[in-house]
Amino acid sequence: MGLVTSSASTNNHNLYFSKDELAKILNLYSKGVSSGEWKDYAIDFNKNNAFFYIFKHSLAAPECILNKSLERKKRKIFYNLKSKNKNKKFESLDALISSLNRKIFKLVN
Predict the structure, then answer these.
(1) E runs forming strands in the chain
(2) Partners of 47 in beta bridges
């Protein structure tokens, strides 16, 4: 019988959304749901990326993808927005969300 110590535990180095980032994203998502544009979401992550997928329908391809990525060479985090063949890069989540907010309210009007 072996003894498990803290040094033997696996060290997880995945990139995640912080609690504040996730709250901002879910707030934005709830606006899209209340306007009837979005129906479902998914979250995924790996070593260098965290993804938030937004779906118009549960069985459809993602309507847009919010991506938090770590560029190792620059040691900096960037946020990408992919939607309908467009790919925009932002230096802050707030800039990405304000860009997407304009898109949501344009669809509602």
Answers:
(1) 40-45, 49-55, 62-71, 76-83, 86-90
(2) none
Q: Calculate what percentage of the chain has a pLDDT beyond 90.
A: 55
- Cα distance between residue 17 and residue 70, in whole Å: 12
Q: Which residues pair with 76 in a beta bridge?
A: 71
pLDDT per position as a tens digit, 86-95: 899 999 999 9
| pTM for this entry | 0.80
For residue 13, give Cα distances in angstroms to 50, 52, 61, 104, 109: 12, 18, 28, 34, 43
pLDDT tens digits along 45-62: 999 999 999 999 888 899
Which residues on neighbouring strands pair with residue 11, listed in sequence order?
Answer: none
